Amino acid sequence: EAGVAQSPRYKIIEKRQSVAFWCNPISGHATLYWYQQILGQGPKLLIQFQNNGVVDDSQLPKDRFSAERLKGVDSTLKIQPAKLEDSAVYLCASSPFPREPNEKLFFGSGTQLSVL
Amino acid sequence: GEDVEQSLFLSVREGDSSVINCTYTDSSSTYLYWYKQEPGAGLQLLTYIFSNMDMKQDQRLTVLLNKKDKHLSLRIADTQTGDSAIYFCAERAGNNRKLIWGLGTSLAVNP
To answer: How near does any CA of chain B get to the CA of A70, in Å?
Structure first.
């Protein structure tokens, strides 16, 4: 079974530039998450999709971050414009059972973003 | 509020047992999880325990849950260099059943 695919693996940009990340979840997984992991911290949920609808985006900085999941499969996360504090690893995860007590998340390898 | 705390670092010798500890605050937690993150990789679910259990064993891994003290531990028997990673404790808590994550414990295994 193929895992969660993310690209690019690394990205270096200057502040105020734009950047986009792509995620392809495990086939058949209806739920998709984007997490931000700053160095030395645990993952912070940015947004959760159920199929192509947003379930939770309460911690997404909507003035600069946006995400979409067209057709309920692949997803893109965009930052425009980027700030220095956005430097982090952006992790995509998917699961077959949203927020069920025994839900297991499957993570991609992440995109490491450096904003200079 | 909901909070999960872990010690930040642990160093053990190869072949010894490792014990990684976690405390949480939400008494309504249903499931508690241990995830492993190797350098440059995403998080991988290691094991989880339902809140009405005290212990769960899976090969070299033993999870102990003390619900009264809100304390969770992960014991890795016969620790190998390949176990070197960051281990995250997470709880599923609250009415919205969000995952609450700890900051992670960095385990270093010395030959």
So the answer is: 24
